[in-house]
Each structure stands twice: as C-alpha cells, then as structure tokens.
Design a protein that fits this description.
It is a single chain. Among the domains are: 255 residues, Orthogonal Bundle (Neutral Protease, domain 2); 56 residues, no CATH class. The strands form four sheets. Strands 3-4-5-7-6 form a five-stranded mixed sheet. The chain is globular. The chain contains 16 helices and eleven strands. It is of the alpha/beta class. It binds zinc ion. Zinc ion binds next to helix 3 and helix 4. Zinc ion (ZN) binds next to helix 3 and helix 4.
C-alpha cells in the first residue's frame, strides 16, 4: 500500500518512521517490502492505478518495454475479469540475483533482472517475449492468487494454471501481431504431454501434507497442464460463459480463499444460464476427470475408405463409431486407455482411467476453425438415450443456435441430420429449428445454403416448407439491409474512434 506519512523518529537522529495505508485482507505470503535507491518510470492506468517500474538507475532505460506493457495489461485484466484492480498502486521491480523468475506480491511484484529488462540493441526477440509473458503472468496473479487465494496448497494449480493461461490473454492484448494463442499449443499443450505420458506423472490437483511436497508441485503439470485444461474449458464453455463464470467466482470469493469445486460451481451456473452445458451435466463432472487423475486418453480418428465419414474411438478398439463427418461427442466412453510413452506390463496401476472428452470438428462444407464449442449438445439433443427428453430437444437446439458461436454449428447439424430429426419426431418436421438456425443469415453463401437445403430435402420438409421459404426471404432482406447500411455504420464507428468491425452472421 502507499505510504500514509513519514515522520522523524523522536530521539533517533536521522531515522524516519513510515506509516502505510491499511492493506486489504490478504494472505501473508503476498506481503513484500523493498528498500532501495532505484530509479523508476511512472504512469497512471486507465483504472487510475499509479503504476511504477523500478530498476537500478544504470539500467532503468531497459525497463521501458515492461513499463509500456504493464499498465495496459493491468487495464485489460480489469475488463477481462470484470473486477477492478483493488489497490491504488502497483510497483514492479527488477532485482539482481533474484532466486525465482518473479514473485507476484500484491502491489509490489518482484522480478529477476533478465525477465523484466529488455534492451533492443542487445536483447533477442525471445527476451522480449519473456518480459511480456512474465509481466502478464504476475499481473494475472493479482486476481488469481491474490484477490482469491487457494484454500490449501492442494489447489495451487488454480493459481499457476490460471496465471499461465491468462498470461497469454494479456500478451495477446498488447502484442496481437504475435498470435500468442497459437504459440500456446507448442509452448504449453504439446510440451506438457511429454511430462504427462509417464507412469510417474501426477494429477493436477494433488494432496499436500508436507512442506517438501509443496516445492514438488511447482512443476510443469501444475503450470502447463493446468493452463491447458483451462484453455479446453474456455473452448467448450465458450469465451463469454468462461469469463462470466470467472467474474462471479472472483466476486464471490474476493479477499478470501476458495477451492476448485467453488470455481466449477460458478462456471456451471454460467453455462446453464447460457445453455452451453445440458442441465444434467456440470463442469465438475467433466473437469474432475482432468484434474483428479493423471495422464490423457488415446483418441483415434479413422477416415472411411471413401473419405466422406470418420469414426472416433478411444482406447483399445471397440470404440464408438459415428456416422458421417458429424463426430460426436462429449460422452464417457466405455473403454478408455491412458496414453503412455512406454507401457510397463508389470505396472501395479489399477486405476480405471476415464475422461470426458469435449470434441468438435469441421469439414470442407464449413471450414470454420475458430469454432471450438463442442457439438455434444446437438448430438445429445436428438437422441432418446441422451437423458434430454423429447420435449426439451428443441430448447437445447435453440440455445445453441441462439448463440453467436453455436449458430453455424447448429445450421450445419440441422442440414446433415434433418432426416434423422424428422424420424425422431415420428415423421414430423420442426419448422422452429430452421427459423432459429437461419434467423441472422445475411450473406450470399447463407442464401445458397438455404436454397440448397430446400432443394435437397423437398419431400421431408412437409410442415416446414413455408418456414424455409420465409428463411430464404428473410436472408435476402438481411442481405439487402447489410448492403444498404454496413458501410455507413462501419464508417460512423471508425469516425467515432471504434475499431469494431461489423460481423456477418
Ligand atoms: Zn505464477
């Protein structure tokens, strides 16, 4: 906290007494003091936080880059978490001979000189990458770790996994041209698979009873696998749901501590509210299989001989084959096999490994590689064994189709499975599904697709034939509206200083 006042000490010539403002409720491990004659760079963030970057006077110029990205990342996180940074100031300081990479003390982040200082004349691009990665990581901790602390060391992965994922969000915000979310796959996901493919790996969440065990868990499983499964969660829940769940979680537990089940509960609530998870499925059910057991499953995708369909299976054969390119699923498969680099036939590991696997796919007809939300809900919605009653199927479909990320997916599913859905409802068409999936269509491609659908499905459309005509007309009128207004609105927004781009549905 900032100094409240400095007063000379009575009867002690040359001594001063500093009094600081009262801290917010916090963990003791986050308290730090620094006494130095360092120089600093100063800025005020948009959130009105006094931000200083400190280093030895002789190398202060090398702190410029860290000081440029730090305040911007702090502002970005406050928006991302929908929770402002709670202290009036933040200092970051480069310390020579610092034993760890950096430490996220609340409001006074300490770094080793090599990870905070950057000199464009002599440093390499990878040095620059690490400066922003470290700054973003430690600033992410100001929320994940500092504002909400794990209840016990067992849940330390919530700190480190989150900071390791969120650091990429922070980097992306200040260095968008680096495309760091793509680097994530190489640096975190693929690399940690090598740590997790041995018998002696350990679950992300692990019992901790002795101080020695604390040191041991600060490893790649905690950091990299933790961040990787958080990324998976972001993808299957969708970005909006993920952020909303994080925000209510941070708000509910701020200045306090929590464990992973608390986070699962908040994310589940957000997902059920937005209908990105079926009502009978929780985040805990899925994520416990990734945090409480080690390893990861073997998944096989086999293309059919004619190349028009694929089958997905897990483990030692006998998996579930699925028809056409519409692979399912987020389901718990009967036989699963943990991937091991070398199998030890004498292993005494009798654990029955099973994972919930969110799966999505794309094909030539819909080459949308940014769509990562799992397709499970659709597959489950029109299947009598899914646990979702017939009366609720349309609601599940509507929830997916009503969501920006889900719309393309819903339409693609509908086009391919119309006959199956038609039969499922006893030979009755469901016009509402068409109008929901197509309601925001506004491009030439959309129009072509809806017209092709009408052509292909002629006889099976029955009661939906009028709806398909309406969808065609509506698409045409949306296209006309876009043609008339798109450029004007874009120009107006740009004039007003927004970089927002209008997006076709
Ligand atoms: Zn950390």
């Amino acid at each position: 906290m900032p100094i409240k006042e400095t007063i000379p000490m009575e009867q002690q010539q040359g001594w001063l007494w500093d009094q600081y403002q009262t801290t917010v409720p916090m963990s003791t491990y986050l308290l730090a003091f620094v006494i130095s004659d360092f120089g600093y760079l100063k800025a005020t963030t948009k959130g009105d936080v006094l931000f200083k970057t400190w280093a030895k006077e002789s190398v202060l110029y090398q702190a410029t880059y860290a000081h440029q990205v730090g305040p911007a990342i702090l502002d970005h996180f406050a928006v991302y978490f929908n929770q402002s940074y709670p202290l009036p100031k933040l200092d970051q300081i480069a310390v020579a001979g610092f034993p760890a990479g950096a430490m996220e003390n609340w409001g006074l982040v300490t770094y080793g000189e090599p990870v905070l200082l950057y000199d464009s004349a002599v440093s390499t691009p990878i040095n620059k990458f690490y400066v922003v990665a470290f700054v973003a990581h430690e600033l992410a901790h100001q929320w994940f770790g500092n504002l909400v602390t794990p209840r016990w060391w067992t849940d330390i992965w919530l700190n480190e996994g989150f900071a390791s994922y969120i650091e990429f969000i922070g980097m992306q915000s200040v260095e968008p041209s680096w495309k760091v979310m793509e680097l994530f796959l190489d640096l975190k996901l693929q690399s940690v698979m090598h740590n997790d493919d041995v018998q002696s790996s350990h679950p992300v969440r692990i019992e901790v009873n002795h101080p020695n065990e604390i040191t041991q868990i600060f490893d790649r499983i905690t950091y990299s696998k933790g961040s990787t499964i958080i990324r998976m969660m972001n993808h299957f829940l969708t970005e909006a749901v993920f952020r909303h769940g994080l925000s209510t979680y941070l708000d509910a537990f701020k200045y306090n501590n929590a464990e992973q089940d608390d986070l699962w509960r908040h994310l589940t609530e957000a997902a059920h509210e937005a209908c990105t998870l079926p009502a009978n499925l929780t985040v805990k059910t899925i994520m416990d299989t990734w945090t409480l057991q080690m390893g990861y499953p073997v998944i096989k995708v086999e293309r059919s001989a004619d190349g028009t369909s694929a089958a997905v299976s897990q483990g030692g054969g006998g998996g579930q084959a699925v028809s056409s390119l519409h692979l399912t699923s987020l389901s718990r498969w009967p036989r699963q096999e943990r991937f091991l680099l070398v199998k030890d036939d004498n292993s005494d590991d009798t654990h029955d490994y099973k994972w919930w696997v969110p799966l999505t796919y794309t094909g030539q007809d819909q080459p949308d590689f940014s769509q990562t939300q799992t397709k499970v809900y659709l597959s489950m919605a029109f299947n009598g064994k899914s646990g979702i009653g017939k009366q609720d199927s349309s609601r599940v479909f509507t929830a997916v189709a009503g969501n920006d990320a889900g719309r393309t997916l819903a339409w693609s599913y509908l086009r391919t499975n119309w006959k199956r859905i038609y039969d499922y409802f006893g030979g009755k068409a469901k016009p509402g599904l068409i109008s929901t999936a197509t309601k925001d269509f506004n491009t030439e491609q959309h129009l072509k697709e809806v017209m092709a659908f009408k052509e292909e499905r002629g006889a099976e459309l029955s009661a939906a034939s009028r709806t398909i005509d309406q969808a065609i007309e509506k698409t045409k009128s949306n296209m006309a509206w876009m043609k008339r207004n798109h450029n004007t609105i874009t120009a107006w927004l740009q004039n007003e200083g927004y970089t927002v781009h209008l997006k076709s549905a």
